[in-house]
Every structure is written in structure tokens, then in C-alpha cells.
């Protein structure tokens, strides 16, 4: 079932999204060589709770942390650990929080110190593909317009677009309908309606699109061990197009 939100619900989600954006801004200076995933996770959780929100990923199907922290070849769902970030890493942070039972979901990839040009280009192009996908959001349009837009932009670089994971509806649950692919497919052709709320979240690999889930049951990494990048926003469909909720 696709949930169309009321204006009052979107108002709460806007507040929630703003706080999530502020959390990333607060975290960014800590994303440095020598910092561990567990330390970042604790900083994020403390910030969320202090601001009277709920870290929704913690405990979701048994997930043990507030953040998903995925480094280099890890695509998504990396579990925070004692491993220290190193100069030249790229690290994706993904988080879902709620206020008054309504959730927003966002992800960003950060450079750890100075990174090489290939990783820098991957980050820049993945983030650009996020906004190209968002620009395809409009009432009356179709969900697969988003995937078509992302794919048309990314294909020129020879990168792999992850197919096993994708964007989704969000609100009272972390994952609601509709499914929002990052490539064009006729499987999902739902019409976008005013006040639907979805995530757009391209996951782009430097090499193959193929991925594997590791033995912990969560961490997803590229099949060829090449770097991956992930950016995500929660987006409301409006009468004039869209509103990005996970910004300040």
C-alpha cells in the first residue's frame, strides 16, 4: 500500500528531516582518520536523543546500531565497529530517525582526509545523480522516471548501478511502498501523487553493479571489491514538483 501523507504529517517529517540534516552537519568534522565507526555511532545517537528524536535503525530487524557505516567497497548496511577510518577512505553514513512516529531517511558519503581522483569523481557523480533523480519527481509522473534519469546520467561513466537495493516510500515505516529503482524498469510504474513521500538513493559502484551480502547478514559490498558511493534524500511530492525534506 502506498501511503499519501497529510500536510500535517509532512510538516512533522520536514522537522524530522531538518534535524537529520543537522546531525550530518554535526558529524562531518568527526569523520577523520583515526575515528572508529563505533565512536561515530555514539556521537550520532547522542545527538538524536538529545534533540528528542528516535534512532529508528537501531533494533530494526535486529540491526545493532544507529548508523549504517559503509567504507570503500562496502555499499550499504555496514555495521559500526572498532576499526579506525584511514586517510583516503570514503565512508557512507545512512540514518533513519523519527519524530512523533514519522520517519525520514538520508545518507551521505564523506571523504576521509585526502582521497584519490577516482573516488572523488565517483562521489561527485553519485551526488549529482541523486539530484538528477530528484528532478524527475513530479505529481502525475511515474516512479520509474526517477530510475531512468539516474541511469541516463550514470551510464556515460561506465559505473555499476546497484540493482539489489533501491529507494522506497517512507513515513510510519522505514520501508513503505513504492519501490524506487535507480535504473529504468517497467516493473515499477506507479504514478507519483501529491503528498507521497519517498527516498531517492542512488548506490553507484566504480566497477560492477553486482554485490554480495557478507556473513553478518547486513553488510553489502561490491563483488569486485571496487569502491561504492551512496547518497540519499527523503522527498515529498508536491503540486509543483517536489520538496527535499532532509535539508536544513
TrEMBL record:
Its EC number is 3.4.11.18. A divalent metal cation 2 binds at residues 105, 168, 201, 232. Residues 12-238 form the Peptidase M24 domain. It catalyses: Release of N-terminal amino acids, preferentially methionine, from peptides and arylamides. Substrate binds at residues 77, 175. Keywords: Aminopeptidase, Hydrolase, Metal-binding, Protease. InterPro entries: Creatinase/aminopeptidase-like, Pept_M24, Pept_M24_MAP, Pept_M24A_MAP1. A divalent metal cation 1 binds at residues 94, 105, 232. Its cofactor is Co(2+); Zn(2+); Mn(2+); Fe(2+). GO terms for biological process: proteolysis. Pfam families: Peptidase_M24. The keyword Protease applies. One of its GO terms (cellular component) is cytosol. One of its GO terms (molecular function) is metalloaminopeptidase activity. Binds 2 divalent metal cations per subunit. Has a high-affinity and a low affinity metal-binding site. The true nature of the physiological cofactor is under debate. The enzyme is active with cobalt, zinc, manganese or divalent iron ions. Most likely, methionine aminopeptidases function as mononuclear Fe(2+)-metalloproteases under physiological conditions, and the catalytically relevant metal-binding site has been assigned to the histidine-containing high-affinity site. The keyword Manganese does not apply. Belongs to the peptidase M24A family. Methionine aminopeptidase type 1 subfamily. Removes the N-terminal methionine from nascent proteins. The N-terminal methionine is often cleaved when the second residue in the primary sequence is small and uncharged (Met-Ala-, Cys, Gly, Pro, Ser, Thr, or Val). Requires deformylation of the N(alpha)-formylated initiator methionine before it can be hydrolyzed. Monomer. This is Methionine aminopeptidase. It comes from Spirochaeta isovalerica.
